[in-house]
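Q&A FORM
Asked by: J.P.
Topic: structure of Dipeptide transport system permease protein DppB

PROVIDED:
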Amino acid sequence: MIAYLLKRFAWLLLTVWVVFTVTWILANNSPGSPFTSERSLPPEIEANLRRHYNLDKPAPVRYWLDLKKLAVFDLGVSSKQVDFTVNELVRLCWPVSAALGLAALAWAAVVGLLAGVVSAARRGTIEDLGLMSLATLGIALPNFVIAGVCILLFCFLIPMLPPAGWGSLSHLLLPAFCLGAPYAAYIARIARTGMLDVLSKDYIRTARAKGLSRRAVILKHAMPTAVIPVVSFLGPAVAGIITGSLVIEKVFAIPGIGYSFVQSALDNDTPMAMGIVVLYTVLLFTMNTLVDAAYTWLDPRVSWEDV
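REPLIED BY: S.T.
REPLY: Here is the structure written out as tokens.
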């Protein structure tokens, strides 16, 4: 286990360095400037700002200075919100995005897994057809379309929930539903496929032949194996939910990481955009590592040498 974690940590460092380098090159060669606005700055002030952000230095020097800051977990200073460092902005915005993402993932995993198991257990019935039709619809519709429909329905036609903002449970329900809906649909289809495959195995037929109830066969014998494909999907899904919140946070005016990332792109705030890209990279890599480690717990046939 220790060797596995050390190997994954080494790959994490390499991955972060590659992503940082590519992002840095793209960001520093993109058109525009963070100091461009409707009112032009006096040349002396702009020169001071460029000196403050090391923009007056050659590109290799700037890259080396930024890389050294990253090595000590210093993401720099926002070029638009000059009173805050990127680290401070991430600390302020991250709890909001985490709460939204966890709520979306929780309901998507529970509802999707339940729908997939029920659909597989009642294969060919009206329940199976109805659940899989809803899953197909959830996959086909982007979350911003779902968000627009839900805002019209639950905020204007039936005014039950607020259309935007943050600060209470009512502000969380609608964005979490819209963000998690496509993932619940994917999980339902994956769980159904996995459950159908497991239910055809010999040991399931043996369990039924011993007289076990249908519920015991599904929950105790089929579920642990059938859930493995779902766990494999959850790693990228976590990162997808967090990065997918870019649109949802903008639609519902939620002050999270996604909203800040969109705003940093619009404002050409390079330090903020690069800091969030690095954060997403670490998050995706960490979740994939946890998923790989979970295989050893879910399937006794998988050892640490296999992951």
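FOLLOW-UP: Residues 137 and 239 are 22 Å apart (CA to CA).
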